[in-house]
What does this fold into?
Amino acid sequence: MQNLKNTLIQVSRNGMGAGDETLGIQLITNYLKLISEENDLPKFMVFYNAGVKLICEGSPVIDTLKVLEQKGVKLIACKTCLNYFNLMDKMEAGLAGTMMNILELQKLADKVIAL
It folds into this structure.
């Protein structure tokens, strides 16, 4: 895997890819597990739209996201999205941020990966 040190990973879905929801959850689970096993981790992950559901209570990937956070990956969730889905008090990892925060991280990143 290429250097991810100044990479921003954006998650906008409650899963990965379009199509079958169960498959999407399986894919994001595998993807995040593999990333968490790497020595070279992304600097930031941002979650917006339905992607914020992944950092909240009941998420099938919350344990993996907590591992990534413990390893230094900054997890930021869109406040507007959390409020929209009534999840502000259900976050179990990361910090709530604004769209301006996400925009700034996009500007600073050498590479942006959108899932």
User: Anything to note?
Assistant: Strands lie at 7-11, 44-47, 74-78, 95-97, 111-114. The longest strand covers residues 7-11. Helices lie at 21-36, 62-70, 79-84, 99-108.
